[in-house]
Amino acid sequence: MIRALGPTFLRPRFLVADVVRALTLVSLVVASVGWGGTALPVMALALLGVVVPRMLGLRPAFDLAVCLLVLLAGWSSVLEWYTTVFLWDKFMHVVLTGLLAAVLYVIGADLRAVPAPHAERRVVVAVLGLCAGLAIGAAWEMGEWLGHNFVDSAIFVGYDDTIGDLAADGAGGLLVGLGLPWLAGRREVVRPG
Asked: What is the distance between the alpha carbons of residues 34 and 154, in angstroms, rounded to a whole number?
Protein backbone atom coordinates (compact mmCIF):
# COMPACT_ATOMS: atom_id res chain seq x y z
CA MET A 1 0.00 0.00 0.00
CA ILE A 2 2.72 2.50 0.95
CA ARG A 3 4.50 2.05 -2.39
CA ALA A 4 1.25 2.81 -4.23
CA LEU A 5 0.65 6.19 -2.55
CA GLY A 6 3.02 8.23 -4.74
CA PRO A 7 2.03 6.70 -8.09
CA THR A 8 -1.65 6.92 -7.16
CA PHE A 9 -1.30 10.58 -6.21
CA LEU A 10 0.56 11.33 -9.45
CA ARG A 11 -1.84 9.45 -11.74
CA PRO A 12 -2.64 11.63 -14.74
CA ARG A 13 -6.43 11.52 -14.42
CA PHE A 14 -7.87 14.95 -13.58
CA LEU A 15 -10.57 14.99 -10.92
CA VAL A 16 -12.98 17.75 -9.89
CA ALA A 17 -11.52 17.40 -6.40
CA ASP A 18 -8.18 18.56 -7.85
CA VAL A 19 -9.72 22.02 -8.24
CA VAL A 20 -10.58 21.98 -4.53
CA ARG A 21 -7.02 20.87 -3.76
CA ALA A 22 -5.70 23.87 -5.72
CA LEU A 23 -8.14 26.17 -3.89
CA THR A 24 -6.89 24.77 -0.59
CA LEU A 25 -3.30 25.59 -1.55
CA VAL A 26 -4.34 29.14 -2.49
CA SER A 27 -6.36 29.35 0.74
CA LEU A 28 -3.25 28.46 2.74
CA VAL A 29 -1.52 31.58 1.42
CA VAL A 30 -4.58 33.86 1.58
CA ALA A 31 -5.56 32.83 5.12
CA SER A 32 -1.97 33.06 6.38
CA VAL A 33 -1.47 36.55 4.96
CA GLY A 34 -4.96 37.86 5.70
CA TRP A 35 -5.60 36.32 9.11
CA GLY A 36 -2.15 35.24 10.38
CA GLY A 37 -1.88 33.57 13.79
CA THR A 38 -3.45 30.15 13.81
CA ALA A 39 -4.63 30.38 10.18
CA LEU A 40 -1.37 28.92 8.83
CA PRO A 41 -1.39 25.66 10.82
CA VAL A 42 -5.16 25.27 10.32
CA MET A 43 -4.92 25.62 6.54
CA ALA A 44 -1.75 23.48 6.43
CA LEU A 45 -3.74 20.73 8.13
CA ALA A 46 -6.52 21.28 5.59
CA LEU A 47 -3.97 20.90 2.79
CA LEU A 48 -2.92 17.54 4.22
CA GLY A 49 -6.59 16.58 4.45
CA VAL A 50 -7.17 17.19 0.74
CA VAL A 51 -4.00 15.42 -0.41
CA VAL A 52 -4.61 12.11 1.38
CA PRO A 53 -7.80 11.17 -0.53
CA ARG A 54 -5.98 11.47 -3.87
CA MET A 55 -3.08 9.40 -2.53
CA LEU A 56 -5.57 6.68 -1.60
CA GLY A 57 -7.30 6.79 -4.99
CA LEU A 58 -10.72 7.14 -3.39
CA ARG A 59 -13.96 7.03 -5.37
CA PRO A 60 -14.28 10.49 -7.03
CA ALA A 61 -17.49 11.45 -5.17
CA PHE A 62 -15.94 10.45 -1.82
CA ASP A 63 -12.72 12.30 -2.68
CA LEU A 64 -14.66 15.45 -3.61
CA ALA A 65 -16.83 15.34 -0.48
CA VAL A 66 -13.78 15.01 1.79
CA CYS A 67 -11.94 17.82 0.01
CA LEU A 68 -14.90 20.22 0.07
CA LEU A 69 -15.59 19.60 3.75
CA VAL A 70 -11.93 19.84 4.76
CA LEU A 71 -11.58 23.18 2.96
CA LEU A 72 -14.86 24.38 4.48
CA ALA A 73 -13.66 23.29 7.93
CA GLY A 74 -10.41 25.21 7.48
CA TRP A 75 -12.21 28.40 6.52
CA SER A 76 -14.79 27.84 9.26
CA SER A 77 -11.95 27.95 11.77
CA VAL A 78 -10.28 30.99 10.21
CA LEU A 79 -13.59 32.88 10.02
CA GLU A 80 -14.61 31.70 13.53
CA TRP A 81 -17.88 30.12 12.37
CA TYR A 82 -17.48 27.39 14.97
CA THR A 83 -18.17 29.88 17.75
CA THR A 84 -20.46 32.32 15.90
CA VAL A 85 -22.80 30.15 13.79
CA PHE A 86 -25.33 28.17 15.83
CA LEU A 87 -24.64 24.39 15.74
CA TRP A 88 -22.06 24.76 12.93
CA ASP A 89 -19.48 23.06 15.14
CA LYS A 90 -21.69 20.02 15.73
CA PHE A 91 -22.71 19.78 12.07
CA MET A 92 -19.08 19.75 10.96
CA HIS A 93 -18.15 17.23 13.65
CA VAL A 94 -20.83 14.83 12.40
CA VAL A 95 -20.22 15.23 8.67
CA LEU A 96 -16.48 15.87 8.39
CA THR A 97 -15.40 13.50 11.14
CA GLY A 98 -17.66 10.85 9.65
CA LEU A 99 -15.92 11.18 6.29
CA LEU A 100 -12.50 11.26 7.92
CA ALA A 101 -13.42 8.11 9.87
CA ALA A 102 -14.18 6.47 6.53
CA VAL A 103 -10.78 7.59 5.19
CA LEU A 104 -9.11 6.19 8.32
CA TYR A 105 -11.03 2.93 7.85
CA VAL A 106 -9.83 2.67 4.23
CA ILE A 107 -6.24 3.14 5.43
CA GLY A 108 -6.79 0.52 8.14
CA ALA A 109 -8.22 -1.92 5.60
CA ASP A 110 -5.27 -1.32 3.26
CA LEU A 111 -2.93 -2.11 6.15
CA ARG A 112 -5.09 -5.15 7.02
CA ALA A 113 -5.72 -3.79 10.52
CA VAL A 114 -9.49 -3.96 9.95
CA PRO A 115 -11.53 -6.08 7.54
CA ALA A 116 -12.28 -4.73 4.08
CA PRO A 117 -15.66 -2.99 4.27
CA HIS A 118 -17.25 -5.14 1.55
CA ALA A 119 -15.99 -8.36 3.19
CA GLU A 120 -17.53 -7.87 6.63
CA ARG A 121 -21.05 -7.53 8.01
CA ARG A 122 -22.32 -3.96 7.78
CA VAL A 123 -22.93 -3.69 11.54
CA VAL A 124 -19.29 -4.60 12.27
CA VAL A 125 -18.05 -2.01 9.77
CA ALA A 126 -20.41 0.60 11.25
CA VAL A 127 -19.16 -0.06 14.80
CA LEU A 128 -15.56 0.19 13.59
CA GLY A 129 -16.54 3.45 11.87
CA LEU A 130 -17.90 4.66 15.22
CA CYS A 131 -14.59 3.77 16.87
CA ALA A 132 -12.65 5.59 14.14
CA GLY A 133 -14.86 8.67 14.58
CA LEU A 134 -14.31 8.66 18.33
CA ALA A 135 -10.55 8.21 17.89
CA ILE A 136 -10.34 11.12 15.46
CA GLY A 137 -12.50 13.21 17.77
CA ALA A 138 -10.37 12.44 20.81
CA ALA A 139 -7.18 13.37 18.95
CA TRP A 140 -8.80 16.57 17.67
CA GLU A 141 -10.05 17.59 21.13
CA MET A 142 -6.57 17.02 22.61
CA GLY A 143 -5.16 19.17 19.81
CA GLU A 144 -7.68 21.91 20.62
CA TRP A 145 -6.71 21.75 24.28
CA LEU A 146 -2.99 21.96 23.43
CA GLY A 147 -3.68 24.83 21.03
CA HIS A 148 -5.70 26.69 23.65
CA ASN A 149 -3.05 26.26 26.34
CA PHE A 150 0.14 26.69 24.31
CA VAL A 151 -0.68 28.55 21.08
CA ASP A 152 -3.68 30.87 21.35
CA SER A 153 -6.09 31.10 24.27
CA ALA A 154 -8.80 32.25 21.83
CA ILE A 155 -9.14 28.61 20.67
CA PHE A 156 -12.41 27.61 22.31
CA VAL A 157 -12.39 24.63 24.66
CA GLY A 158 -14.79 23.56 27.38
CA TYR A 159 -16.13 20.39 28.94
CA ASP A 160 -19.64 20.62 27.45
CA ASP A 161 -18.23 21.49 24.03
CA THR A 162 -15.80 18.57 24.14
CA ILE A 163 -18.44 16.01 25.17
CA GLY A 164 -20.84 17.31 22.51
CA ASP A 165 -18.12 17.23 19.87
CA LEU A 166 -17.16 13.65 20.76
CA ALA A 167 -20.80 12.54 20.59
CA ALA A 168 -21.10 14.17 17.16
CA ASP A 169 -17.83 12.52 16.05
CA GLY A 170 -19.10 9.11 17.10
CA ALA A 171 -22.44 9.67 15.36
CA GLY A 172 -20.68 10.71 12.17
CA GLY A 173 -18.41 7.67 12.27
CA LEU A 174 -21.37 5.34 12.84
CA LEU A 175 -23.47 6.84 10.04
CA VAL A 176 -20.66 6.85 7.52
CA GLY A 177 -19.68 3.34 8.64
CA LEU A 178 -23.01 2.15 7.27
CA GLY A 179 -22.06 3.48 3.84
CA LEU A 180 -18.43 2.35 3.88
CA PRO A 181 -18.83 -0.53 1.43
CA TRP A 182 -20.00 1.97 -1.20
CA LEU A 183 -17.55 4.74 -0.22
CA ALA A 184 -14.55 2.40 -0.28
CA GLY A 185 -15.52 0.85 -3.61
CA ARG A 186 -14.26 1.80 -7.09
CA ARG A 187 -10.87 3.04 -5.96
CA GLU A 188 -8.21 3.96 -8.51
CA VAL A 189 -4.97 2.69 -7.01
CA VAL A 190 -1.86 2.65 -9.21
CA ARG A 191 0.36 -0.29 -8.30
CA PRO A 192 4.07 0.38 -8.98
CA GLY A 193 5.95 -1.92 -11.31
From this structure: 17
- Residue pLDDT, tens place only, 30-65: 999 999 888 999 999 999 999 999 999 999 999 999
pLDDT tens sequence across 108-155: 999 999 999 999 999 999 999 999 999 999 999 999 899 889 887 778
Per-residue buried b or exposed e for 172-183, using 16+ beta carbons within 10 Å of the residue's own CB = bbbbbbebbeeb
Q: Could you tell me how many residues make up the chain?
A: 193
**DSSP conformational letter for 113:** S
3-state SS track over 14-82:
CCHHHHHHHHHHHHHHHHHHHHCCCHHHHHHHHHHHHHHHHHHCCCHHHHHHHHHHHHHHHHHHHCCHH
